[in-house]
């Protein structure tokens, strides 16, 4: 992140802080001030995530998402806008909670490194694979624990309001839920080294992926990839397919559920009989989930 901050300080923030200092007749905050870095990071991360969220989910909604899904009996009235409002409320709070991790990075406490060949070129690919597997494993357990009846209602239930998702559901969480599920991405660079550009690229990728698994259109029915079909099963039937990128940990820990053939097939997926069968199964399931909360 220091490479991004370097550019932003030079081209944006130096001027802003100098102007603020002039207006208040004080010394400008130095670049390495924690207060200045926290403010700058909030402005940058919040702007980035809002643009990225509305940009990526908007493009996906326009060009990829099958809008016939909005006729599903479990699609809520005005749901797309409810999802956007939910994400817009959560993202500032998630941004604030994320700042300490990035400050740690800026002050050299993480294992992010600059030189491409510091650990050899093959390590760049190895570290990317490690990032996917490490974060997939952690998110699997965070997500699975969030489905525990003792905490489900307080933290994760909001994201399951969207039974038939649009791409805008991708970041529509309770802020604590969104933060907990993003923690592994920050933790990774405190556990193993990553080259800064590889890390930034993967960070962008995970945000796109999050949109992709909520748009309902699978790009692959590879048995190892946890795609939109698998996450559709998660939103329809709750206690299956907790993974983010792969089906490995669901298979390993007994929560894998194979998507049915009609989830992969647009014409079958949009048929009234398939949709009302899904709606009935959900109606049977929800009272069980709700009852478990009081246990
Ligand atoms: Zn989801
Ligand atoms: Zn869930």
UniProtKB/TrEMBL annotation:
The keyword Oxidoreductase applies. It comes from the Eukaryota. Keywords: Oxidoreductase. Its EC number is 1.14.19.20. This is C-5 sterol desaturase.
